[in-house]
Specification:
- The protein has ten helices and 15 strands.
- Helices cover about 25% and strands about 20% of the residues.
- It has helices spanning about 15-25, 120-125, 140-150, 185-195, 255-260, 290-305, 330-335, 350-370, 390-400, 410-415, and strands spanning about 10, 70-80, 85-90, 105-110, 125-130, 130-135, 165-170, 210-215, 215, 220-225, 235-245, 275-285, 315-320, 375, 385.
- The chain is α+β, with helices and mostly antiparallel strands and about 425 residues long.
- The two termini are about 35 Å apart.
- It is globular, with a radius of gyration of 20 Å.
- The model is unreliable at about 1-40 and about 410-415 (pLDDT under 50).
- The strands form four sheets. The chain has a six-stranded mixed beta sheet.
- Strand 2 and strand 3 (about 85-90) form a beta hairpin.
- It has a single domain (about 10-25, about 45-415), classed as L-amino peptidase D-ALA esterase/amidase (4-Layer Sandwich).
Length: about 425
């Protein structure tokens, strides 16, 4: 996919003390950037904070993928020296032994210019048996290595001789010195071992540290939806790593065109559309791999609503899994004939709607929460700047297109 050490900061629920205790023997330095601290999170907003709340369904309590089941997310952010701007994001479908208690899953490729390791086996067997790890293009090998190392060390896996590591990527080479391949196996293991339930850090963190989207700074974003009791009360959550282009539309508002930054402007390629996106979709509905594949397709529908160009050089992938305990593929169930409960085809349409809505909003959150990231000039590459989306300009656009009498978003925000 397209595009002296100061800090190695661990984000999203991993404390410095925990990391040093776990990896003190490696002699690594983990601290916040002393030269240029990242802007405070309070300076950025999520979509609902400014009245952007796409769709019909209400979000979960955290409006994050961690609203679903026992999902945990961990992230390692690497901002070092002049030009290292990258990281790792790990998603764990549950807190148990993922290899032994596999989760049903499906994967969809909207455009295959990418390196999403492990997805052919997911498509073949319909299951995920490891954490899902996201990083940059040239560090997929290190991601696989870290996943395998962590999996083999889990109690109960002493006889395991084959692991299908699931590792996706986008290319952060515009802001990150990607050829340095700064991510290590230890970074990947740290992200996995530091994964926690609860709020998820968004924007310029983890695997989204160096990514771009629509010509602005992209990153990690997440959102969720809860179906009403009459539709089953199931939850759907999405986490994205955005690094793609097109003409940004936010809940129907022509943001990219209004701000003068979009693909094929004046019929030229002033703003590149190449890049990639990974969408990770989770639900607690009892679905098998066939309907999870269908659910992943609907996340692509949410991507389309944001104005994606789906360009030649973009790798656009969605992977979906279920956290429902009754459909988990345990050793006992895999040993013979097993019966799995499954939501009927006639009942899945509301989940499809929820997946599209959560994917769309997760993408908006990745942009709105992202902070400006700069890469300094070196002998290998010129300086580069990933400018954060101008929130004041987006607010002004909302006010212009939606007068105060249009309170549909405020109503949805109060339903949380």
């Amino acid at each position: 996919m397209r595009p002296s050490s100061v800090s190695r900061s661990l984000s999203a629920f991993v404390g410095l003390g925990l990391l040093c205790a776990a990896f003190g023997d490696l002699g690594r330095s983990w601290a916040h950037d002393a030269e240029k601290p990242a802007p405070a999170a309070a300076e950025r907003v999520r979509a609902r904070d400014i009245g952007i709340a796409p769709g019909l369904f209400a979000p979960g309590p955290l409006n994050a993928i961690t609203d679903v089941g026992d999902i945990r997310v961990g992230q390692v952010t690497r901002i070092e020296g002049a030009d290292v701007r990258t990281g790792v994001t790990a998603i764990l479908p549950h807190g148990g032994n993922l290899f032994q208690d596999k989760v049903p899953a499906g994967v969809v490729v909207a455009n295959g210019f990418g390196k999403f390791a492990g997805t052919t086996q997911v498509a073949e067997l319909g299951e995920v048996e490891t954490p899902i790890v996201l990083t940059n293009t040239l560090n997929v090998a290190q991601a696989i290595d870290g996943i395998v190392d962590w999996t083999l060390r889990q109690p109960g896996n002493e006889s395991v001789r084959s692991v299908n590591a699931v590792a996706g990527e986008t290319n952060d080479g515009h802001l990150n010195a990607i050829r340095k391949r700064a991510i290590t196996r230890a970074d990947v293991v740290a992200a996995i071992e530091g994964a926690r339930s609860g709020p998820v850090a968004e924007g310029s963190v983890g695997a989204g540290t160096g990514t771009m989207a629509f010509g602005w700074k992209g990153g990690i974003g997440t959102s969720s939806r809860v179906l009403p009791p009459a539709l089953g009360g199931y939850r759907v959550g999405v986490l994205v790593q955005t690094n793609y282009g097109g003409t940004l539309v936010m809940d129907g508002l022509p943001v990219g065109r209004a701000l003068g930054r979009y693909y094929l402007k004046d019929h030229g390629e002033r703003t590149a559309a190449d890049g990639s996106i990974i969408l990770v979709v989770a639900t607690d509905a009892p679905l098998g791999d066939r309907n999870l594949t269908r659910l992943a397709h609907r996340a692509i529908a949410g991507l389309a609503r944001t104005g994606s160009a789906f360009s030649n050089g973009s790798g656009d992938y969605a992977i979906a899994f279920s956290t429902a305990a009754d459909v988990r593929r345990t050793p006992a169930r895999r040993a013979g004939v097993a019966a799995y409960p499954e939501l009927s085809n006639d009942a899945v349409s509301p989940l499809f709607v929820a997946a599209a809505e959560a994917a769309e909003e997760a993408i908006y959150n990745s942009l709105l929460m992202a902070t400006t990231i700069e890469r300094q000039a070196t002998a290998e590459a010129p300086a580069a700047r990933g400018e954060a989306l101008d929130i004041a300009a987006v607010r002004a656009l909302i006010a212009r297109h939606r007068p105060p009498t249009d309170n549909r978003h405020e109503t949805k925000r109060s339903s949380r």
